[in-house]
Every structure is written in structure tokens, then in C-alpha cells.
Design brief:
Removal of H(2)O(2), oxidation of toxic reductants, biosynthesis and degradation of lignin, suberization, auxin catabolism, response to environmental stresses such as wounding, pathogen attack and oxidative stress. By secondary structure, this protein is an all-alpha fold. It has 14 helices and 2 strands. It has 2 domains: about 25-160 and about 300-310, Peroxidase, domain 1 (Orthogonal Bundle); about 165-300, Orthogonal Bundle (Peroxidase, domain 2).
């Protein structure tokens, strides 16, 4: 009798614990434990932005690349060592940068509320503010994520997709977040911000132009890309702007795709594929629809496989798993 009662109590406690874990993600998570965290975060973010106008694009990409590898757990920030390998060393994470912004946000949060605010929540806060301050939607998100103790270069290389993926691969890889095809195209619309490396578009330029760049409408665009990204001898860190307004979160990306000026292989592909082209057309002319769909997709993405409750830790230093 006693053993059965003990098992019943354990079951009840476990169920309650799991419910509690799910309930931890909420908008007012830090209302009492660190009520000024959002002001702290935005102050540090703006300070970082003053040093680099491309910082917002970096923060949006950082959130995606963190969540895409085993969930939103700030594993991307961990340095190698202590049984971990560095996700940032994966070729898929080429260009991940401006991490000093997250470091500054974390240091300020630790001074105000020691051991309370997770690195994973700070990544999401930075991405949200990056979108808003760049002219995008003001997204309402939930918090309460905790940080993982592990990171893997191999996992990043395996789970992150390259610039030359197909539409099928795109929908499959983003589908793990629970997003619809329309939401997947909206997430891809974040390519309206920032830059890309020449190494990621050289396959479209050499030894001959790919078929989508051989069309008359794309000829000038292709010639400009070849001038910026020569066939050989260029610095592997050479970059090109994603679009003409690459510091503004707008619909220019979709307009460029429709005009044959999609930069990456996947950018050109979504404008041609029947599963995605209708959404490209809609977003190109409907800013409100793009913003609403992006917010829905971003919310789903940033809840993906989060670490909560006793499953994770609050790192005092985002680079070290303690």
C-alpha cells in the first residue's frame, strides 16, 4: 500500500512539475524577479547598434541559428571546452557576430539581477528589438527560457541549412518550428536585412550564371555581383548587401525576388516555386500581412524546444556552461 501511494504521489508531482515547466514561458516572466530587464536590454542594444549599423541583422540571424540547433537554448554562444565544441566554428555559422552586444546585455542584467535572466531570453529580446528598431513589427513574445550546458559544432553543421538549399529543404527545415509554408516564406523575408558572403553566392556566378540570372531582367544585377565577388583571389570574408535597404526591415526582399534580384539560390527559388511564390507576391505588396505573418512565425520559432525549469541553468557568463 505504501509503495503504491508513493508511486501515485510521484506521478502527481511529476505532472504538476511538467505543467509548471510549460507555464514558465509568459510575457511577464521577469515582472518581479527583474522588472527592468527589457529597459536594460534595449539600452545595451542601442549602445551596440551605435558601433555597427548591421548589428540588428546579426541579432535576427543569431536567434534563428540558435533556435535551429537543438532549440532556443543559447548554445550558439558557448565557447569550446568543458566537453563542448563551438557551434560558431561551423561553416554554416560563417559571419555570426556582434556577440559583444549580448555580452553587454548579460553583464548589465547580472549587475541588476544576478543569476536571474537567461542568455537565451536575451537573444530573443535582442532579435525582437532589432526587428522593431529597424522598422519592423513590435512583437509580443514570452520569456522564461533557460540555458543549456552543451554545444556542438557538428550539430550546427548538421542542422543548419546552406544558402543553396531547395524549397523542399527549406519547408522541411523550418517546418520543425511548426510554421506553415506561408510563415516559412515570412521568416526568409528577414533576408531583407544585412549582408551575405560572396562564398554563398559564387555557385550562382561561376563558371557560368545560373539559369535564373541569365534572364534579361537579372543581367545588370548579375554583373554587379560578379564585380563584387570575383571568381578567385577575393577575401573569403567579402560581403554584399542583401538588398538596397539592408538596414531596414521592409518588403524590399520580396520585391527584389520578383524582379529577378534574389541574392541566394533559395531566394531565387522561392519566387519560382508554386508552393511559395504566391506568398512572395502577397508580401511584396502587403507590408501589414508580411509583418503579421513574420510575428506569428517568429513566435513559434522562439518557443522551439526551449529549456525550462530544472532542465536548464542560468549562465552567469553566456560563453561558459556554468
Amino acid at each position: 500500500m505504501r509503495s503504491r501511494l508513493a508511486r501515485l504521489l510521484l506521478l502527481l508531482c511529476s505532472c504538476g512539475y511538467m505543467s509548471g515547466v510549460q507555464a514558465q514561458l509568459r510575457a511577464n516572466y521577469y515582472a518581479t524577479s527583474c522588472p527592468n530587464v527589457e529597459q536594460i536590454a534595449i539600452t545595451q542594444f542601442i549602445a551596440g547598434l551605435a558601433q555597427n549599423v548591421l548589428a540588428p541583422a546579426s541579432m535576427i540571424r543569431l536567434a534563428f541559428h540558435d533556435c535551429a540547433v537543438n532549440g532556443c537554448d543559447a548554445s550558439i554562444l558557448l565557447n569550446g571546452g568543458m566537453n563542448n565544441t563551438d557551434e560558431k566554428l561551423s561553416a554554416r555559422n560563417l559571419g555570426i557576430g556582434n556577440l559583444n552586444i549580448i555580452d553587454g546585455m548579460k553583464a548589465a542584467a547580472e549587475r541588476a539581477c544576478p543569476g536571474v535572466v537567461s542568455c537565451s531570453d536575451l537573444i530573443v529580446l535582442a532579435a525582437r528589438d532589432a526587428v522593431r528598431l529597424s522598422g519592423g513589427p513590435n512583437m509580443n513574445l514570452v520569456f522564461g527560457r533557460r540555458d543549456s550546458k552543451t554545444a556542438s559544432t557538428a550539430a550546427a553543421s548538421r542542422q543548419l541549412q546552406g544558402a543553396a538549399i531547395t524549397v523542399t529543404q527549406l519547408l522541411s527545415s523550418l517546418g520543425v518550428f511548426g510554421v506553415t509554408p506561408m510563415e516559412a516564406v515570412a521568416l526568409l523575408g528577414a533576408h531583407t536585412m544585412g549582408v551575405s558572403h560572396c562564398v554563398n553566392i559564387r555557385n550562382r556566378l561561376y563558371p557560368r550564371l545560373d539559369s535564373t540570372l541569365q534572364q534579361n531582367a537579372s543581367a545588370t544585377f548579375a554583373n554587379n555581383l560578379r564585380a563584387q565577388c570575383p571568381a578567385s583571389g577575393s577575401n573569403p570574408n567579402t560581403i554584399v548587401a542583401n538588398d538596397a535597404s539592408n538596414i531596414i526591415f521592409d518588403t524590399q526582399y520580396f520585391q527584389d525576388v520578383l524582379a529577378g534580384r534574389g541574392l541566394l539560390t533559395i531566394d531565387a527559388a522561392v519566387g519560382k516555386d508554386s508552393r511559395t511564390s504566391p506568398f512572395v507576391n502577397q508580401f511584396a505588396t502587403n507590408r501589414q500581412l508580411f509583418f503579421a505573418t513574420f510575428q506569428s512565425a517568429f513566435t513559434k520559432m522562439t518557443r522551439f524546444k526551449v529549456v525550462t525549469g530544472r532542465q536548464g541553468i542560468i549562465r552567469r557568463n553566456c560563453r561558459i556552461p556554468v
